[in-house]
Structures are given as structure tokens and as C-alpha cells.
């Protein structure tokens, strides 16, 4: 096999599936099963909203093209090894790769998934690591009252991890009725009006209003963990009320760097192993959102550009026979 089919963003308005040459130097051929659309980042990429100074730092493994278009982008794919070392053939593996139906890569780019982690659930691994980093950055503690604004894929995974911490009182806020319903069906407490002073807030809505709500509703010396990425969009905030007087903190959390409190003992591999272990819990199946056939991905991104979709997440399913 010399070619595969891959999703390319060809302009700010258009995405299409193109034939793409497979690499010649990979020793493993992977048949794709599922990949996850990391909605916040990938919508900005598809809209051409990556700031030029970040073009190099925002590159992901096996990306092709450039953020100025055309570009092949994505970073959480699960497939089955069909050619390669005997110990790998037939195994389900996770890799950082754009949306593509077959991939040829080196074996060291693959992470074998245990049998307890289904291929569909395995695509959550990259965003699970983002949620883990946010928990570490927050230094959340037993008994904290926590607000989470924005119940998308990152917010929902963060909420699931927070619920496992003893005594944490977690409230979820989202303006989208479908996402609030999803949170309630998962057993999370939701709120339609913010009344409390929280010890800590996690912001995952990628909106100025969402961040403002977090700032306004944490208590004295409260922390806001900012997980949203805005690309080239401006963020307008009102900081003239309690922000300075009450010594509130806005802390950026980003997955590409381990928090200072972990760097002496942790590395990316240890974090990944933890993420996989957590995904053995079948409860994370609830976070998979909508399944979209690979052939429909150009339409999916057309709707995402227009902001007309609001599922928890989108998982691409490949029909490779």
C-alpha cells in the first residue's frame, strides 16, 4: 500500500478527503479505527486562527502542510497494527496522528492499549492528559467547592477526575442545554445561575463570558484554571471589581508542559500510563459524544466552522476492510 486517505483543511471555508502518500520509512502499518476531533483546537486550525508566531510550536507529529493552508492536522488516533513486528501485529494502538485511514509509522510512535480500553475509548487519551495536567495545576484539595464552566470534552473529562477526589463539591455550568443534559445524565450537579463563592474554578468554554463568570464567582484568593485556547481571538474581561482586591489568580494550563510540582518525578510517559489506566473505567464511554463516519468529516468541519454543532465530542469512525 502506497497511499491513504486523509482529511485536509484546504482553506478557512473548506475541508476535503485527499489521497495522501504513505511514509516510506515507517516499520508499522496501522489501520485506523477511530480518531477524536479535539474541538477547540481543531476548530481554530480549520478556521485559520492559529497565530503565525505559534506555527512551529503548534505543529503535531505527522502533520503535513502549514497553518496557512492546506494542512493535515489531528492528534489522537487509535488503530490496529496490520504490518510490523510480530509482537505488535493485531494490537490496538494509540498514536498522535492526523485523521487518516491508514498510517505508516515507526514502532516507537505507538502506544499499545490494554484489552480493558476499547479502541473508541482509547481516543480520549490525549485529552485525558490535558485534564490530568489541569488537576495538577489547580492543586485542588479535599473538601474544595469547585466550579467548572464549559462541559465539552475537556471539561467533562476534568469533571470526571474531580469527582474522584474525596469531599470535592463540584458544580457544572454551561449555557448549552444539550451539554447540561449530558452532565446531569452522568450524575453531575449543574447550576443555571451562579450564586456561590467557589474555592476554585476550571474554565473550558473558550469564551470571554465563561472566563468572566469564573473570575466573578471564586472567593478571596480563589484560583481560575484556564484550559481554553483562543487562537487569534480577543478576550474581553472586566477586572475592576473584586479581581485585584481579592487577590484572585488566573492560571494557564497546557498539556505540552508538565506542571512545576511534577517535573522532578514525572515525565510524559508516566502521565500517559496513568491516563491509560484511568480509561479502563467504562464510565468514560459516556464522553465519546457523536460517532461520525470518516467520509462525513468534511461536512462535520463545515458545521463546526459555523458553530452549529454542540455535542460533547466527535469521534471519527473508519470503515477499513
List keywords for this structure.
321 residues, Rossmann fold, 17 strands, 2 domains, alpha/beta, Quinone Oxidoreductase, Chain A, domain 1
Give an overview of the whole structure.
With 321 residues, this protein is an alpha/beta fold. The protein folds into two domains: 3-123 and 288-317, Medium-chain alcohol dehydrogenases, catalytic domain (Quinone Oxidoreductase, Chain A, domain 1); 127-252, NAD(P)-binding Rossmann-like Domain (Rossmann fold, 3-Layer(aba) Sandwich). Helices cover 24% and strands 26% of the residues. The chain contains eight helices and 17 strands. It has helices at 39-46, 119-122, 125-138, 153-163, 177-185, 208-217, 268-278, 297-305; strands at residues 3-9, 15-21, 28-37, 64-65, 71-72, 77-83, 92-95, 102-105, 111-112, 145-149, 169-173, 189-190, 198-203, 218-226, 249-252, 290-293, 314-317. The strands form four sheets. Strands 3, 6, 7, 8, 9, 16 and 17 form a seven-stranded mixed β-sheet that branches. It has a six-stranded parallel β-sheet with strand order 12-11-10-13-14-15, with helices on both faces. A two-stranded antiparallel sheet has the order 1-2. A hairpin with a 5-residue loop joins strand 4 and strand 5 (71-72). The longest helix is centred in the middle third of the chain and has 14 residues, at 125-138.
Mean pLDDT across residues: 96
**End-to-end gap:** 14 Å
What is the ordering of alpha helices and beta strands? Answer: EEEHEEEEEEHHEHEHEEHEEHEHE
Could you give me the name of the CATH homologous superfamily of the largest domain?
Medium-chain alcohol dehydrogenases, catalytic domain
Largest sheet: 7 strands, mixed
Number of strands: 17
> What is the rounded Rg?
20 Å
Strand content: 25-35%
CATH class of the largest domain: Alpha Beta
Q: Under the CATH scheme, which architecture of the largest domain would be assigned? A: Alpha-Beta Complex
Total helices: the number is 8
Query: Low-confidence segments, ≥5 residues, pLDDT <50?
Result: none
Q: Count the domains.
A: 2
CATH fold annotation of the largest domain:
Quinone Oxidoreductase, Chain A, domain 1
Residue share in helices?
10-25%
Large-scale geometry: globular
Structural class: alpha/beta
Amino acid at each position: 500500500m502506497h497511499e491513504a486517505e486523509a482529511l485536509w483543511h484546504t482553506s478557512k471555508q473548506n475541508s476535503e478527503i485527499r489521497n495522501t502518500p504513505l511514509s516510506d520509512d515507517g516499520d508499522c502499518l496501522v489501520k485506523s479505527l477511530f480518531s477524536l476531533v479535539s474541538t477547540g483546537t481543531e476548530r481554530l486550525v480549520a478556521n485559520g486562527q492559529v497565530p503565525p508566531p505559534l506555527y512551529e510550536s503548534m505543529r503535531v507529529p505527522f502533520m503535513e502542510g502549514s497553518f496557512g493552508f492546506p494542512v493535515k492536522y489531528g492528534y489522537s488516533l487509535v488503530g490496529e497494527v496490520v504490518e510490523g513486528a510480530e509482537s505488535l501485529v493485531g494490537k490496538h494502538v494509540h498514536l498522535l496522528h492526523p485523521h487518516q485511514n491508514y498510517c505508516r509509522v515507526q514502532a516507537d510512535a505507538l502506544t499499545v492499549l490494554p484489552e480493558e480500553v476499547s479502541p473508541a475509548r482509547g481516543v480520549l487519551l490525549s485529552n485525558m492528559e490535558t485534564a490530568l495536567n489541569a488537576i495538577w495545576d489547580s492543586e485542588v484539595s479535599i473538601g474544595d467547592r469547585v466550579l467548572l464552566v464549559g462541559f465539552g470534552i475537556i471539561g467533562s473529562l476534568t469533571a470526571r477526575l474531580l469527582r474522584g477526589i474525596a469531599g470535592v463539591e463540584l458544580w457544572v455550568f454551561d449555557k448549552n442545554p444539550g451539554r447540561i443534559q449530558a452532565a446531569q445524565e452522568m450524575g453531575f450537579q449543574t447550576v443555571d445561575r451562579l450564586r456561590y463563592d467557589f474555592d476554585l474554578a476550571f474554565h473550558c468554554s473558550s469564551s470571554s463570558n465563561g472566563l468572566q463568570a469564573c473570575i466573578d464567582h471564586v472567593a478571596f484568593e480563589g484560583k481560575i484554571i484556564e484550559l481554553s485556547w483562543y487562537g487569534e481571538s480577543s478576550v474581553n474581561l472586566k477586572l475592576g471589581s473584586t479581581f485585584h482586591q481579592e487577590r484572585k489568580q488566573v492560571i494557564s494550563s497546557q498539556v505540552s508542559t508538565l506542571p512545576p510540582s511534577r517535573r522532578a518525578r514525572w515525565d510524559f510517559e508516566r502521565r500517559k500510563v496513568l491516563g491509560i489506566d484511568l480509561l479502563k473505567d467504562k464510565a468514560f464511554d459516556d464522553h465519546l459524544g457523536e460517532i461520525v463516519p470518516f467520509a462525513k468529516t468534511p461536512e462535520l468541519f463545515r458545521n463546526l466552522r459555523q458553530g452549529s454543532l454542540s455535542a460533547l465530542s466527535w469521534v471519527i469512525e473508519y470503515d477499513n476492510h
